[in-house]
Design a protein that fits this description.
Oligomer: homodimer
Largest interface: A-B, 110 and 110 residues
Number of helices of chain A: 13
Strand order of the largest sheet of chain A: 3-2-1-4-5-6
Number of strands of chain A: 9
Order of helices and strands of chain A: EHEHEHEHEHEEEHEHHHHHHH
Strand content of chain A: 5-15%
Mean pLDDT of chain A: 95
Chain lengths: ~300, ~300
């Protein structure tokens, strides 16, 4: 195995993403040593029991002191506060990064607290499942997934390359873009789909008990596909919608325009319009499968149900 | 193996559902013999090559003559015409059924053509995948899935019980309800989810080439879940929306009201409201998994991507 990409890795937050990075860093030899911290004592205890990192720290100072790469893996709403509290303890020349699903607002909240002697390189691995917590993580979560870096214009290029090498080592494909562009693209590919999924499950939940039980029974007809992402972590998603308000509202506006057009086609009985609409949406799925971003197996290859 | 539930089975339409019924009937010994027909000559040739039925007929008269159970497995828009054309050839005492995703409008279109000497018992198996055609079918498609019967009040109870026995034999769980209730429940569990999925994929497709390629790349962040059902058969779905207009528009109205409320929470930065909304939607997924209607494996257990 080739040399570790960083000597000492510090992870703040031991949820699905943080605990997966710890496991992946070990699996792929990406870090000389990994120290992990979580604000919840029971999560720290669980991470100790799982033995997925060389050390579990009990406070932030201990976590980041001596670390060459610090990755903040908390919900995005907590990143600013974490940055403020770790700032005095960061090593000269350390790289500070994150995994947040929103970049613009979060980058601003973190950057203002960091000392000039560290390199701040925001990142967002496009990976996850609907499960949360340290038990949900696994070493191959990032394999063949994209990790987007949004380095500020003035950041040290060498630091960006080291972070790129770290993510590449644990299986990811790395791409760079501006925070604003990231937030627009993710509003469309991730935030809007989650909002729509939460909404349709909410609509069903509003019905009385009898209808709700029928929805559950007959969910294999389409509904169940939405319930997976609508069972994602509520804190994480609250923070995302609060932090990426503008781009989400823009995408939602476009979605609503299109939905009004479809609604009108149904109301007018415009079979040709509906057929054309339903035909062109097939091409995107074909491309997603061709690019290895989803399985071609029927029903996502579901096996247990 | 116990005795076949019907002597001679006739299937009209050899797509995903029709070809799966043929395979299941053989696998579970549900029919003495099965004859299958499709209006497309290339589909008939393919079904002959697959060898999934005892006979492939070249016309409707040949298909239904002598059949004890005739199941119409075409898109719902074609059911009325099929009924009209098979009517003169149906055996006295035969059961005629269908698999349509809409019941009210379709039942009316079929019933008016059928002679009084047959028993019409509409049915809808809640099963399928995003793939179409005779190659997509498989024998276990209906196992542990619900099949809803919507028998008219004056139909022979013995005929309903024979159809129930047929579906039970090929693995389904059978439930009865009125056509109107069926159409309302399915508008919520199936038709609205498909409409929303088609719509969000359409919204993404409207962007220029660069954004579209980014959507495909980063689709694992949520979007890809919607593309599966948005790649379902366009003819089938056009017919569903044209045939269940009223119930779909009602459910869409409720969905839109809820979405406006979520939009307002985002605009006002109502973190507490968002958190509460995102919390209550978890319970429905839990119930779906507990009732064996979806897998608990992360990401639906996707393995290839």
């Amino acid at each position: 195995m080739s040399e570790a990409t960083v000597e000492r890795l510090a992870l703040i937050g031991a949820g699905l993403i943080g605990s997966s990075i710890a496991r992946a860093a070990r699996e792929f030899g990406a870090a000389g040593a990994c120290v992990i911290y979580d604000s919840a004592p029971d999560v720290r205890a669980r991470v100790r029991a799982l033995g997925i990192a060389e050390a579990v720290a009990d406070n932030l100072a201990e976590t980041v002191t001596a670390a060459d790469l610090v990755i903040i893996c908390t919900p995005v709403g907590a990143c600013g506060d974490v940055a403020k509290r770790i700032a005095p303890h960061l090593k000269v020349g350390a790289i500070v990064s994150d995994v947040g699903s929103v970049k613009g607002a979060v980058v601003a909240q973190v950057a203002r607290h960091l000392p000039s002697h560290v390199h701040f390189v925001p990142a967002h691995p496009i990976a996850g499942t609907e499960f949360s917590g340290p038990d949900a993580g696994f070493a191959t979560l990032f394999c063949n997934r994209w990790c987007i870096l949004t380095p500020p214009a003035n950041v040290d290029e060498h630091a960006v390359q080291r972070l790129d090498a770290f993510w590449t080592r644990i299986g990811a494909k790395v791409e760079r873009m501006s925070p604003a562009h990231h937030d627009k693209v993710l509003a469309l590919t991730s935030h809007l789909p989650h909002l729509i999924a939460y909404n349709i499950v909410g609509t069903a939940d509003d019905f009385g008990e009898q209808t709700r039980s029928e929805v559950i029974k007959f969910s294999a007809s389409g509904f169940r596909d939405f319930t997976r992402i609508a069972s994602s972590d509520p804190t994480m998603w609250r923070d995302i919608f609060l932090s990426n308000q503008e781009a989400v509202l823009e995408m939602l506006g476009r979605f609503n325009e299109d939905l009004s057009a479809l609604q009108k086609m149904i109301r007018l009985g415009d079979g040709e319009g509906l057929f054309d609409f339903f035909t062109r949406t097939r091409a995107i799925r074909r491309s997603i499968i061709e690019q290895g971003q989803d399985t071609a197996a029927p029903d996502f290859g579901r096996r247990d149900a």
